[in-house]
Amino acid sequence: MSERERQNLRRQNEISMLEMAQYFFDLAADRLKLEESLRALLRYPKRKLIVVFPVLMDDGSVEHFEGYRVQHHPVLGPCKGGIRYHPDVTLEEVEALAILMTWKTAVVALPFGGAKGGVRCNPQELSVAELERITRRYAAEISPIVGPDIDIPAPDVNTGEREMAWFVDTISMHTGTFMPGLVTGKPKILGGSEGRETATGRGGYFIAVEMAKQMGIKLEGARVVIQGFGNVGSSMARFCQEGNAKVIAVSDVKGGIFNPDGIDCAQLKQYERKTGSVVKFPGTQSLTNKELLELECDLLVPAALENQITAENAEKINAKVVLELANGPTTLEADRILHNRKILVVPDILANAGGVTVSYFEWVQDRSFYFWDAKKVEKRLRDFMVRALHKVLNVAQGERVDMRTAAYMVAVDRVASAARARGLYA
Ligand code: NAD
Q1: Rounded to the nearest whole angstrom, what is the distance from the C-alpha of residue 305 to the centroid of ligand 1?
Q2: Whose CA is nearest to atom 14 of ligand 1?
């Protein structure tokens, strides 16, 4: 596939991600009978910043990079969302992701609005020194609209602890004060939280345990299939194994593996670290990602990419519950098919909110300079996830809607209530 075709495909996916978010926002707004003025306010981002900045390259030349920071709506509190570095980053993509962050933070009742940022660059072609100069200059460029009380960035695709440390250092140097609450996902030595790395997988696991209880089934012995064995998929696999569920299939970009008696996920992690893939893990049969998604199981966990469950394979999904740990893994058409087939889908904005919840904990700890132990983080994460799940289930039952519509209703209602309470400053 050519670069242009790849970009077009990505763009189509982005549009569908934005369209999907807008579609469910409209559905929730209709059901909530949201007034026109609030619909208009919440449908689009409040602030979009485009920055173009020069960076000194290692060979002495100067290159210009384009970056973005989009804030959806800071109605409930400061905006929150990651920063991605990718050659295909567009303003439209960043907008869609910022809007989704608003609904994600609202569904778990965090005092945040949504934001997202990005720099169009290819980290694979940049040295560490160049990445540092890009990060510091981008931080300086967007500094007028970020801050612990305004907008708190975090890692996303191709950024991590290292970039967050540079970001904090740059702004702290500008202001003359050490400002750890400026970003989350930092190294622990600079105010990062316990439990952040595994938070999305752990939050998803808490939801799975509670969903199983609600459905009157036991997670112990339940058959789990996980697509993706990165940060999220591998921690979900580990927690499932610790909870005595049977992880029968796992995959990554290179392919999948299957064992009906269960896979040892701790050993698999070591194997994957050594070989770079889960493929050919001893004692398993090989299968494709397509076959993996159609396996008979109790819990199917897409934890890799968007648009994996589509109109083509939704009829063949053979799971009782789909837990969306990836962002946007189910297309709109597939969502309808699964709903008609009575397959429960726990939507991404709820299922994968564990990461941003622990980011919230990090921000809270940074503001008081008092840090919690791992047990406290875990307990509070469970409380937030389980409370949010029950709220969504209550709305789904009361309104007779699927869980995705219910999650959007919870989120939109919370943001709209805050906007009404604040009133219109016009
Ligand atoms: P990651 O890069 O650590 O891992 C991604 C995994 O998916 C890898 O195992 C990769 O091999 C696999 N993969 C890539 N392409 C694939 C394909 N075509 N078929 C099958 N597998 C494929 O990423 P991550 O942080 O684990 O994120 C996974 C998903 O979860 C993404 O959709 C991300 O947006 C979402 N998410 C992540 C977090 C977080 O805290 N990391 C939070 C919320 C949502």
Answers
A1: 6
A2: 253
